[in-house]
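User: Please predict the structure of the protein below. I'd like the answer in structure-token form so I can feed it into my own downstream comparison script.

Assistant: Understood. Taking the following sequence of 402 residues as input:
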Amino acid sequence: MSVTPAFGLYIHIPFCARKCPYCDFNTYAGLESLHDATVDALCAEMERWADCLAGRTVSTVFVGGGTPTLLTAPQLERVFAALHRHFTVAAGAEISCEANPGTVDQAKFRILRALGVNRLSMGVQSFQPAELHFLGRIHSVDDVGHALATARKAGFDNINLDFIFGLPSQTEASWRDTLDRALVLAPEHLSLYSLIVEPNTPLFHWVESGSVREPDEDQAALFYEYAIEHLASSGYIQYEVSNWARRTGTCSNHETPELACRHNLIYWRNEDYLGIGPGAHSHLRRVQNGAQAERRWGNRKPVPSYVKRIHAGDSVQDFEEQISLLTGMGETMMLGLRLVREGVTLERFYGLHGRSLNEAFAAELGFLCRDGLLAVDDRRVCLTRRGLMVGNQVFARFLPDN
């Protein structure tokens, strides 16, 4: 049985008011002079894809960055006009936009809502002033509540808040307080990420020089376990390793909750998406000579070079990779097992790859089940609670050369 993949569109806005010291995303501060030219380039890149993807309907849109809300109202309007001019967006599509609590106001939220955005994702990271300062955030604790209340007044009823745990200075008390303050705001969705020291970031150099203590993985694991228990008792369903959605109605053990991020589900289910903008990545399948071909590529990262190539009519792709069957199957497992309730269904795996899960990974499944890290039934494979705590080790078992 074949599975028709959903199709997501990601639009990257590479600008920030200030670059956070832990961030390794393709974002830049101080490039205000390039905002307008970059918007033109984004619109032109969307136009390039219009004919090629004319038969595809966009299921979800995610405008991320960076801080998309740094753009002016006319610039945002041009981006969304190009989106609807060049793509067929499904009725009822989830359209998300990232927002920094320090860069939004009532007028900006109303503009986003008028443009069709129906889901907001705000990078809060902490409710502790000292932690916000360490993370280089431009907003205050009070800004968060104000931004969320302002978004509600503008008509947003689907809001995600991002947080980071495992900071060198973070204590159990500060983490509990941050979660409790988040719950008071009653967002529809929460994303919690362990602090990672990424190479070539200021945080990496601070740790290397000894001026900042390296994050404690054991402490971070304790914070994570606390969040799992606390959010479950507060009406939130953990549907992915780092993501929780507020419970609405009934939801069986293996169902993905209604308020889950539908765009990110496309990534975790290893389906199709197109990335627009500097550094954006894409993943598409097509049928070629009776067989399914799978490929991914990434755009050039530096903004001036991306803009120059677009306006010269040149390719903006920096790399392209044809994905082998073995790699594709491994990635379906690695990504799908992150969905802690849904897991990887046997039906979806066969539909994507034309092989049964047992045919592809009998030895790996047997080993991980015996070790108590996976649970398998006649419909799906899921992480156990023990497997969730060592997820990266489980995922690695399914990738080639492991």
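That's the full token string. The chain has two domains: 7-268, 341-402.
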